[in-house]
């Protein structure tokens, strides 16, 4: 007797008998591996997997001990450093998972890993065959995670960009096959039925019409079984989970059309609508393929940046030039980048000068001139000149890699408006099903011959596909547009909040100004030598990463500093020759300031009195004026830790009406909270160096600087090329995106409200309903794609 394996669906050899109980019945398996996987699923309380699945799983490994031994290689530190990201909570990795066939697979993997002690977070993207796993590496080894996935019948390995592209191509090819078959059959069936409807072939007798119906049935069957299979799988999974989605009325309509057509053909009586069924599937697949392509195009601009990374580099060792893998480079190594070559890693130019194309990062196509001491980034192209570069970071830690990681995380976020639209769609589907059933009952009393076709027309015409596409298609295209201009969004729902912003708080240093300080003047206590005080200050600032420290880099700094510490946004302190010195703001030194130092904004003091005052100035960014001119309709406030005279001068120059000086990070944070308590939606613009808490507190936060540590930034929006005027572009795109979403949803709702009474009254035939529904979805997608321009 022929038997299939309950787990993988393969033939069970007659000589093997492996059994276990599933759903109270004894099931047969082809090997001990599949049997063990099924037992693991059942013992973990995940038996419902076999309810939800729409396809068989892959064949499991038979030798578990051998498999686990192979997986231990992934615990090697070099491999972990290659693929994982470290954080305060542990490690995070993206995995490519083979064997995923449907949503039930993703559900099963998430449920299984959620039970494992040490797993912090897991998310599975079924369509991309990818998973993101965060875990505590003190409690759990990476090989153990892979082992848990293997035990339930899936194969996982660290994600690589080539595999992601292959996954998309596989999904794209499947789409095209289903779409191509539906299109081909639609043309053939339409040709036959147009001949019947309009008698184009002259007088057609009943026998010929019957023959055409049988041919149409033969041509339509592959469409319902193959092209429409994904709709049935989706509807089945939704009903298993006791919810309804937009594929439920679609599959009901398809089934009714097909079954009624079969009966009409077999009994040689009544009307068939095979052409409507084929056209419905073709148009629906077309709209979903457009959505699939637009989403991929939207995410490809940023999420797949790593595919532009160079694979090789020229390493300088002594007098030799050695070709090496770019990912093998480490800090302090020296590489050569010739004209026309791509920069392999982030680094500092130590010899030569060049003209670099940084469009991949910033969206600006003008070449950037760079010379000794300046930073270059992986993925940029040296168009002119020869550069010798000292490596600052490995390829994995480069800015381009960080951008890719942040963008991948952003794509996991689902905006609130999209969630609301999904919920509304569910209620709408339930309403459509109730109306369709009620209409069928009423029309059986009025004209029984029309009841079925009117019901089918209602189910087709009112399918809320356009409503489901309204928000995600617009957001995806808006994010893609910003990415192409060098603007990185870390949260997909940031655009939703940006359109509501009415209050903007601005940091001064490094934001409105360039953060390149110079010492304009200095005033020292008469009892102390000025050169000595300058050297003390330079020695302290040598250990600081704040932009102010750059003003002291050209001064002598020969003193040894011990017990150094820095207070964010206020100053630094350290011990030099048994004396503790402070260098920072007036509030930080907390001593009386001599009259001659009243105009200074940075002070050097010991434990008893102020030794010296420095007046530091910073150049205003050229883009600040343009930016502020374009957002002057918002409430603007300048927040700065600098002295009042300097802050007031910048505020007057830039025509900012409200400003606050000598603000500590805590005071800035309280100011933001106060504005929010008054029901304002606050956007904070800061440089990310000492404004972390404030950026995190604001409803939306923007930071500048491609060279900052993006992975630890608290901002929601990052301007990769420091161009402040691009914030106005963010506002513009956010506004356009909101308008497009409203337009899309208004059109989708208005169309359904308009077409529903027409369908209920019997004024729409099924083929008209098909055209209307598909056209509605197509309009939404095309309207959203306009955001890419």
Question: Which secondary structure elements does this structure contain, and how are they paired or packed?
Answer:
Layout: E1 18-22, E2 25-29, H1 32-43, H2 49-52, H3 64-71, H4 77-83, E3 85-87, E4 90-98, H5 103-114, E5 119-125, E6 130-135, H6 142-151, E7 155-158, H7 161-198, H8 206-227, H9 229-240, H10 247-267, H11 274-303, E8 312-317, E9 320-325, E10 334-337, E11 347-351, E12 354-357, H12 359-362, E13 368-370, E14 375-376, E15 381-384, E16 387-391, H13 399-410, H14 416-446, H15 448-461, H16 465-484, E17 487-489, H17 494-498, E18 503-507, H18 508-512, E19 513-524, H19 530-541, E20 562-567, E21 571-576, E22 579-584, H20 586-589, E23 602-605, E24 610-620, H21 622-630, E25 635-639, H22 644-654, E26 658-660, H23 665-677, E27 682-686, H24 692-697, E28 700-704, E29 717-719, H25 726-760, H26 766-785
Parallel strand pairs: 18-25, 18-27, 25-26, 27-28, 28-29
Antiparallel strand pairs: 1-2, 3-4, 4-6, 4-7, 5-6, 8-9, 8-10, 10-16, 11-14, 11-16, 12-13, 12-15, 17-29, 19-24, 20-21, 21-22, 22-23, 23-24
Helix pairs in contact: 3-6, 7-8, 7-11, 8-10, 8-11, 9-10, 10-11, 10-15, 11-16, 11-26, 14-15, 14-16, 15-25, 15-26, 16-25, 16-26, 25-26
